[in-house]
């Protein structure tokens, strides 16, 4: 699919000075990137590097001004974007538009809807930023400090604090700004009396950050006194040495009040975890108990409220690689196998004949549980199908992607695609909405294609797919290519037996046809002994999975 757009070219019209300046800037940058630096003395090289960094900052200031003019001309709407943030993301390719907008409000002269010029919120910081004496990281660190000044502080004190922080930013590193800002905040409110209940509620937050390469994720939180009291009580009764230790099969689980005293003493003597690790394991044990007791309900967006995990059979056989949960979490295969006795596995097999109805035509409007499960099981089904969206399967609806239900769309599995509520509401024929369709041929067959509608007469926006689910498959392709280039084509162990996964909808051996079919079976109701796996003849795929799970019970 082409990502190119048509632009009218009138060579006779004089080019605006802004266009000429940008062309000259790129020409200078081309030369600056390749210029010989060896004639520079140490002092000159240092000054050149420092001046280049100042120029980078000043370019950001110029870019903020251009964004402001684009907003004043209503360019986001003209190009089909609903908001300035969306325009900054998709048209200008700004990596963090929310922080950039916050920076613009603080340091840029903005234009109101009536054409009035609005001064920056923090003029001293804005002046230093325009001169290039502070960089973007300095501005962000300063804004983080100023945002923490309580609302009850007088206006003149806030103005003085802004000037003080701008002065600090010009002479210190971003890390220093954070430390010195904390000292200033303590000076402004030494007793903490200015932070009322409204202030505490405004600052409450809890984030699960993105997973690192090893699968772990960092949690950050700012708790209200009420939640802090509950969490500390939880840790008092569940996070005790010897309790809820996943590394000790004889460790008591649950509350310390329900544990056998002698078993707890013995487990505590064997416990070599740190206090932080004990807290972690206590929270994990509590959430497991909540899931097991069904306190979260029976269904969420059509999916059962339990751990739903998708894994590749080849990875299960070799006991390596990563599985994906319906919440988007990556789970190492060895951890999945260890959890085999705790989760209720479902086996999904794509094949030509189906045991479960997945094509309802106009008979149903909403997708069934089976359709949602098979949608998640597809190679690209763990996230919203909209380009760039990372909302996991537990946060999506089933979107009639080929044709809207109101216009005669069918509730068939090969016409449905996962879409988060925000993107699902943005589908329509008006400018600023999306049109979608299912790709019916080629390597992306069966996937949902999205196009953002532009204003009539404006160049059409390109079509896009969400390429996030393709990363593991594409990496495997590149890895095999590199190995072949280095070592030559070889019959490495296991290569010939691997199924062809070059197509996005390829799931296992024998897959064929465009229609996605599912045969699924509930393999075991935990806790169940291994013999439940052999009560009926199993197909080879089921037998392989059953053997792996049985070996680890």
TrEMBL record:
HNH nuclease domain location: 370-425
Keyword Membrane applies: no
InterPro entries per UniProt: DUF222 (IPR003870), HNH_nuc (IPR003615)
Biased composition (Basic and acidic residues): 495-513
Annotated GO MF terms: endonuclease activity
Ranges where the record places region Disordered: 480-513
Alphabetical keyword list: Endonuclease, Hydrolase, Nuclease
Protein name in UniProt: Endonuclease
SMART domains on file: HNHc
């Amino acid at each position: 699919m082409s990502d190119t757009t048509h632009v009218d070219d009138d060579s006779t019209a004089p080019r605006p000075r802004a266009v000429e300046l940008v062309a000259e800037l790129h020409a200078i940058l081309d030369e600056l990137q390749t210029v010989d630096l060896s004639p520079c003395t140490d002092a000159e090289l240092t000054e050149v590097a420092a001046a280049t960094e100042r120029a980078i900052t000043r370019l950001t200031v110029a870019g903020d001004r251009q964004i402001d003019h684009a907003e004043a001309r209503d360019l986001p709407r003209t190009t089909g974007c609903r908001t300035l943030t969306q325009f900054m993301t998709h048209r200008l390719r700004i990596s963090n538009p929310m922080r950039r907008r916050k920076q613009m409000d603080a340091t840029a002269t903005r234009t109101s809807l009536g054409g009035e010029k609005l001064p920056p919120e923090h003029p001293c910081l804005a002046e230093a930023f325009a001169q290039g004496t502070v960089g973007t990281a300095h501005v962000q660190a300063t804004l983080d400090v100023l945002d923490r000044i309580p609302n009850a502080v007088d206006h003149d004190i806030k103005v003085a604090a802004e000037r003080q922080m701008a002065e600090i930013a010009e002479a210190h590193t971003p890390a220093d700004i954070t430390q010195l800002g904390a000292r200033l905040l303590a000076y402004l409110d030494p007793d903490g009396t200015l932070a009322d209940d409204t202030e505490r509620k405004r600052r409450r937050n809890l984030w699960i950050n993105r997973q690192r390469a090893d699968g772990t994720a960092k949690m950050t939180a700012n708790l209200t006194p009420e939640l802090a009291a509950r969490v500390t009580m939880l840790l008092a009764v569940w996070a005790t040495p010897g309790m809820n230790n996943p590394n000790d099969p004889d460790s008591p689980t649950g509350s310390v009040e329900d544990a056998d005293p002698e078993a707890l003493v013995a487990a505590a003597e064997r416990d070599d975890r740190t206090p932080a690790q004990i807290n972690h394991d206590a929270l994990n044990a509590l959430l497991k108990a909540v899931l097991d007791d069904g306190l979260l309900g029976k269904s969420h967006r059509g999916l059962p409220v339990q751990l739903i995990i998708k894994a590749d059979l080849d990875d299960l056989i070799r006991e390596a690689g990563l599985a994906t949960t319906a919440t988007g979490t990556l789970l190492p295969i060895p951890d999945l196998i260890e959890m085999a006795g705790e989760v209720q596995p479902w086996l999904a097999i794509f094949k030509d004949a189906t045991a479960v109805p997945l094509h309802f035509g106009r008979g149903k409007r909403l997708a069934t549980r089976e359709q949602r499960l098979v949608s998640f099981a597809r190679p690209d089904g763990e996230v919203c199908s909209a380009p760039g969206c990372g909302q996991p399967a537990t946060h999506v609806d089933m979107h009639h992607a080929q044709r809207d239900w109101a216009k005669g769309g069918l509730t068939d599995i090969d016409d449905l695609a996962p879409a988060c509520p925000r993107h699902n509401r943005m589908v329509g024929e008006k400018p600023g909405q999306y049109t979608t369709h299912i790709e019916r041929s080629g390597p992306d067959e069966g996937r949902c294609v999205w196009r953002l509608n532009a204003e009539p007469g404006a160049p059409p926006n390109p079509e896009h797919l969400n390429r996030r689910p393709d990363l593991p498959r594409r990496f495997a392709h590149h890895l095999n290519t590199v190995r072949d280039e280095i070592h030559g084509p070889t019959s490495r162990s296991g290569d010939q037996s691997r199924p062809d996964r070059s197509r996005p909808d390829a799931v296992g051996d024998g897959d064929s046809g465009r229609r996605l079919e599912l045969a699924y079976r509930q393999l075991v109701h935990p806790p169940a002994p291994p013999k439940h796996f052999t009560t009926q003849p199993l197909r080879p795929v089921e037998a392989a999975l059953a053997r792996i799970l049985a070996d680890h019970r």
